[in-house]
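Q: What does the assembly look like in three dimensions?
Context provided by user:
Components: two
Sequences:
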Amino acid sequence: MPEFFGYIVSGLVTGAVFAVMASGLTLSYAATGVFNFAHGAIGFLAALLFFELNVGLGWPAWPAGLVAVAVFSPLLGYVLHRAMFAGLAQAGETAQIVGTIGLTIALPALGLWIVDLVAEPFGLPRADATALPHGLGPYPPVNVDVGGVRLDSDQIITFVFAILAAAGLWAFMRHTPYGLRMRASVDRRRLATLRGIDADASSALAWMLGSTLAGLAGVLAVSTLGLDSTAFTVMLFVSATAAVFGRLRSIPVTFAAGLGLGVVQNLVAGYADFAEDVTGLRTAVPVILLFAGLIVLNRSRDRVAGSAAEDAPPPDYLADLPAWRRRLPWIVALAALLGWTLTRPADDFYVGVVAQGLVLALIFCSFVVVTGIGGMVNLAQASFASMAALTCGWAFSSGLPFPVAIGLGVLGATAVGVLVALPALRLGGRILTLATLALALLADQVLFQIDAFSNGTIGWPLPALGLGFADTTDPRVRVVLLLALIGLVGLLVRNLERSASGRAILAVRSAPAAATTSGISAARTKILLFALASGIAGLGGVLFAISKGSVTATDLPAFAGFVWLAVVVLQGVRRIGGAVLGGLIAAIFPELLAGWHVSAHVGAILFGTGGMILARHPDGVLAQMAEGRHRRRRRRVERARAAAVQAEAAAVPEAGNEPAAASEAGAVANGSGPAADGIVAAENGSGPPRGLRGAAGRGEGPAEPSREALFRLENVVAGYGDVTVLRGVDLSVRPGEAVALLGANGAGKSTTCAVAAGDLPVAAGRVLLDGVDVTAWPAHRRAREGVLLAPEGRGVFPGLTVEENLRTWLPDPDPVYERMPQLARRRGIAAGALSGGEQQLLTLAPALIRPPRVLIADEPSLGLAPLVVAQIFEVFAELRERGVALLLVEEKATAALELADRVAFMRLGRVTWTGPRAEVDDTRLTAAYLGVA
Amino acid sequence: MGRQAVLRRQAVRLVGLVAAAALAAGCAAEQKAAGGGDAGGTAGVTDTTIRVGGVLTKTSASGYSTKDAEIGARARFQRANDAGGVHGRKIEFIGAEDDNQDAAKGDAAAKKLVQKDKVFALVPVHGPNFGGAVFLEQQGVPWFGWATGPQWCGTTTGFGYNGCLAPKPGAGSQTWWGNQMAELVGGSGGKTVYVQTTDSSGSKYGGKTISQSFEAAGFTIVGINSGLPAAAPPPDWLPYVNKIMTSDGGKAPDVVVSIIAGTKFNVGLYSALKKAGYKGLLTDATSYDAAILKDPATAQALEGVIAAPMFEPFESGAPEIAQLRADVEKAAPGTVLTQHLAIGYWSADIFLKVLEQTGKDLTRERFLATANGSFSYENAGFGRIRYPKDHNEPNGCGALVTLEGGTFKVAKNMKCFDNVPLK
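A: Here is the predicted structure of the complete assembly.
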């Protein structure tokens, strides 16, 4: 038993590195929604810097470690946040995965390239396999006996640092305002900004912290791993297992899982001798656990099964071009390629390169099917290709005719595709991606290691493919054959998109639940997609092997599949054109670089830069080109349109305003027409001179005329994408005044709120707070200056406790508890567990203690019991007494009307009538809602 | 119901289309023997020059690099050129391509050298995952280097400088390591050996051949463990060390053989073994590396290790080694001599020998006919080489070097032993 005990103690100690790495992964994922595949690469860079400072420049280990972990890593995290992650957080899932995979390749290359450049002049050691990095502790390490287990000083330092990091992280997240803000941003990012939390700054902080943890893990691990970026990527995969066991949310569970993994690895190494005969099985234990963890723990709750609705396809910018014009560039390029190919000699090097590119293009077409059309990110594509090639080689070597062997290969890949699709039925989004990653690694580490299948390291020889008049040893024949096959796949894809199956796929992709209720079988659709994609990848894999003349298990490693995905997505994964371009670039680009005698590292770095482009243009280069042209055309049009909407609003003098209303002018007004706003428009000089306004002739309503508007929207035009919702809205509120904004569903009320709070940018017009133009201010800055929006639904962070919810707005929540004892009793409960009424009280309670200057409440009574509604409106009344400018937005008018000093009706994106409450009667109300005024 | 039927029809149609595509490819397919390719044979040869280039793993994600082989080959070619070339032709060495330890890139690099740069032969080829073998064999282009992988073996164009190191079962397998060790320790009688490999087919295969070598020399194998993860050193060596320390009936074995590439792996294993109190012998194939000496702590961890290079050690007094030192010093002054450098040097040396024997009338066919027609060449630097025999088995020669007091010392000079059939 002492041996067993030793494995556990020693395993816990070594699991500490996984724990630190995995905690950083979970932290950055939970805080920003981006699963960072480059986490290991960041660790590698920190380790590289540590090595060069320590061994290269001769710094003592501690200062070198401090610089690498506490200075360099957070800085790197911040730079990456600015350059990439901030953009990626808004991009679709595919772009996120690909962007960080790009970094995995680019970051180590960048570091090694810099070392290559400076190594000679500064006499630094090279960072290759001969580099021997030290640990943080004494060197060579000192051995210590701990409870009968002999540990060295580096192991102990690692463990201590891991515990410190875990404790520090816990304290930071639970007991500092930064941690609270970060958690609030994670819980409801939009609401957090409305509470004055700069979500972007929170993300930056999360990246800096995550990156620091990666750097710490890197520096701690480098003395055992060596400066091998692959080893760091492997460590990332192991850590991902721990993160998955923490459900990518819980840092403590992740940490514990990391420690546990160290123990499991030791026990497997110590006792699993029965697995000796299956090469790779023991190495693959973390991957197997990863897969099991994904299946068991991480059923996607909201969006099931590979749906990726946020990956909305880009608009077809070329839709207005005739079909021949759209295809022209491709036809010209194809003709040029064929013409060039056929005039070259048979042993021409560049034709061979192009043929190789087209083989890759054929494989890449499978990404178009599964990712472009199906919206599922599959990292196992290289394994499908490898599977098919190996099966084909095995079958041919077993004496089967070559065509049969090819067919078997493609079928084999298709079968594996169906097998992979099975978890896809249950999993969605990133979880599915991770599952395919696990399967790809498993195939590499176990399946392809089976000697009978892959013929050991020798692999299988494959003959050339004869076409009667020529065979595929001639690259020109390959080019023509591949172009034909790609064309066939293109037709297939087009057919698929236009067929009923294609519609079913789209339906499943955007709304699986709705698709199911419409009688579409999501399962069958997804299996079909996976089968098709893996069949195509398989065909590509077989052709890859045929053009190479042989296939071995290491020809198409799993990591190649990640790079491929990145290349395709960079060009545009929704179209075959993107796949073809990607394939050609993947084959030709390295040759060009080599021809120019540029370091191979530079290619990798450029490739990673592609990830940054992707952060800005998630739909890839092809879509980007179309969009650029489209945008140039559109920009003028758009500017003109916003102006036209404004002009139109101005030109409708009192379209909806009856003469009586026109005379009301006052605080709430419509349009910038002459009758609209007395003081308001005049004071900023945008309207006609005050004298012409005849303020005296207009009733100022119940509000005191001397008081100026505190908050005002001025001829605001805004909308979503191409849809303009607000068409010149003017609205203003004075301190201590309650304005009710009423209107039917779809009138633009919530959009008005969003514009007011800074949640939605305006196309034209201004937003003014106390005379200051705040149009350009982001939401969190407006909130900090006192514009508080209580959004539609409940304005609480469901994942935070009542206490933490209050703390997002108040430094000290005690006064709230004095006012509202029912909240005090529930201070430790997650806000999501409260009743609707309690949640609404929790939304508004902080405002009572620290009143904002302007409170905008969007549908505050929605879905609440009448008693609760009364309570809510008491809060509003009190706030008004205390001088808060209130804007109440309601669809149901009753309660709001009781409180309001002034009323504005909205219809079709404009304020159609404004006036004092006293003038609102049933006729006017009916007219406003039904639009017959 | 109706919708489902339509969907199913669509699905069937799609599957049908795929099947049709596959069939189209299949029907067109027709088994064909690999073509002879360009048989011109004078590619890369003029009256005064012979163009040659290599493929090396200069950079790789794992940090493994064989780039020094380029310096070795260049140094050897330079001496040949200084001596007037071979039959009046100088060697135009255009350097080596980098395959990044990626089979596809190695294939592309081989094609580039043959098709674009028009080289006569590929020298040196040295990468653990070289992917151009099939192409070169098909084109009949000779290639010289370190034949660590099975892609070299059984070819007519791939010339390993010390033979094929990955023989098939039944073919000859080396016994020199075991025999040299036995001679070094004064006999193998009653001595036990433990072999440690990583969990990959390649490393397991190495474990098989090397344990057979020790067995042939009379040692008793008490364990072959392949539990080490292949991709990265384990964070914790305890379970592996425990197994070794109890393998000989509860005791530690007399010799531990490590079949792991990578100093980091070996330093980890040896440090852990010493930490656990291991006092026996340690031997491996990769620790003969001057870089180790630069780092005192690593040198300390590897103190006493017996490395097994497959060439005459640089510390040897043989005149061939003095010549090697002089050649390298002339071509690239100040270069540290490494294993990869020696491999490049000896590969080039054998290539030159074949050129010399082929004579003035040089084509690839004539060159290959010479090399594969009972070619035999002995040299203290690498022992001896005999083609075509050594296309299928190792040359059976090796040396031993020990690390003592921070410097390498020759323990056993290069010596050749008879191979035994691989089980």
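Follow-up: The domain at 173-313+401-421 of chain B is CATH 3.40.50.2300 (Rossmann fold).
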